[in-house]
Amino acid sequence: MVLKVFFPSCCSSAESGILIGRWISEQNSAVILAVVHFPFIPVQVKQYLSEVQRVTKVSVSVLGSWSHSKQEKEESLSEFLEDLGTIFSHEPWIQISKEGGSKFWSCSTLQKHSNNPKEEEIILVYYDQRKVMLSHLHPPLDTGTSTDHKADDASKLSAIFDTVAKSKILFMTDRYDDGPIKLTHWQSDGVEASIIVELMKQASVPACMLLTFLLSLISGICRSRVLKFWPLSFLWSKLSTCEQLGHRLQHLQVLSSNKKAETQTQLMRKANIFVSLLIDVALGILLMSWLYRKNRIGHLADTLIPMADHVAEELQDLLQWLMGAPAGLKMNRALDQVLGRFFLYHIHLWISYIHLMSPFIEMILWYVGLSACLGLTVALCILSDIIALLTFHIYCFYVYGARLYCLKIYGLSSLWRLFRGKKWNVLRQRVDSCSYDLDQLFIGTLLFTILLFLLPTTALYYLVFTLLRLLVVVVQGLIHLLVDLIDSLPLYSIILRLCRSYRLAAGVKFRVLEQQDGKPLRLLMQINPLSYGSVVQTYRLPTYSCYPKDSWTSLCKKLFLGELIYPWKHKGEKQD
């Protein structure tokens, strides 16, 4: 049977002593955590280990002895190390020794209480204790035939990673402590600490309390009855800016919460939210500084009115083209003239509205630019809402054309069922047989003929304005995709994967160091980091999109039947 001994590489130069760690009987493995140096009192060592076991809930015990002699090995020391197995009584008793003049180590086991001691093959595995303690082992994401095998390997590795991670209190004792026990581990030269980090922790307490109070006040205002009345409730549910502000408000509530993160996933979520907010606000401030430099707000306001006039002129030319013979098509002249004049009148109203608002546009843009300090995503959502307001006349044209086209499509389908002796049963939501008299068939034939010959004119207007509407929706969709990317991208996890790849572990790999007959096989355990795609998939933040997720089949069906395509999401629709 193979015995695996996981030995921390930081203890390879430690002085002689005893090995403390955890014995995993299911895997026939020993995880060495530290070396206790001579001299020591066995009773004090047992008391210390029982205290560590009570705090960490890890069965830490003395597993064997460690001998490191820079000169010739002394027989008295080896006998003394063997006698320690009787005092601490662990089966098997592991003996690891290293001589200064040899690069190979010797490792053996003693089983004094066994009647038939068996010769075991020993594999000595070195691991970086600091990296293993700080890393988080992720379960395999791949699905396939070997999923059960990968999950079994992951569970074995997780036992080793959890043993080192839960033994933090053991690593708080270094060689400079005045206690009766001297240990060697990865923090033997002094406990890692940062004065700046500790000062920031102390300063963040009153800041979090103030932020919590302000957020509770803002949440109370948002939940007040004033915002539930129309049209405030309508604007709050339809404007993407309000949705994004509500989403960021939830993020701030998560960050300012005094509830401690219990799992690694919750801790990473808080860190990702904090970095996302920080970068979002930094990009927003950069955008705001760029807008207010060299009077770019004034230049933008001066070009906005001519741009709106140019769009209105192009729409007027398009309507004039539709009112003639577009592409040589023969249209119903009466209906064509009515629809064309109707839409031209709306364009005239829109131009009058834009010129009426022109004196205030620069001031509006100046105050809108200040909102960039809330974040780049808020500025992008405001841009999307401004585009929706500036193209409101196109949306009106699309709604008029879609409603008229939808009315004719449903009218033709209903009259077609009349010819076949069918009708739509509203109560049972199905098509039933029905008998019609001569007058009903005559009226139905007349209406069907009228709707059929008027359909091409209506369909052409509907097609043109639907294409314009889809162009606006695509532009808004690209803006919202950028907002969702900033909101959902786990920036902290990606930076951690780039700078400290061992913190996000997907598994381990082993490299052979030395191998010789009669000596234990020595391996080096190295951490395999998660791929960037797995990092994004694992730690991606949930988003609240402002556009519906329709399939291509559903979208084509809506376009063919003339159903409206809304630029906002339905209430309560949450997308991860």
From TrEMBL:
GO molecular-function term, one example from the UniProt record: transferase activity
Keywords: Membrane, Transferase, Transmembrane, Transmembrane helix
GO biological process: GPI anchor biosynthetic process
Any one GO cellular component localisation term in the record: membrane
InterPro entries: PigQ/GPI1 (IPR007720)
Keyword Transmembrane: yes
Pfam family, one: Gpi1
Transmembrane feature ranges: 203-222, 273-292, 338-357, 364-391, 397-419, 440-464, 470-495
N-terminal signal peptide: none
Protein name per its UniProtKB record: PIGQ acetylglucosaminyltransferase
Organism listed in the record: Mesembrinibis cayennensis
Lineage of the organism: Eukaryota, Metazoa, Chordata, Craniata, Vertebrata
Gene: Pigq
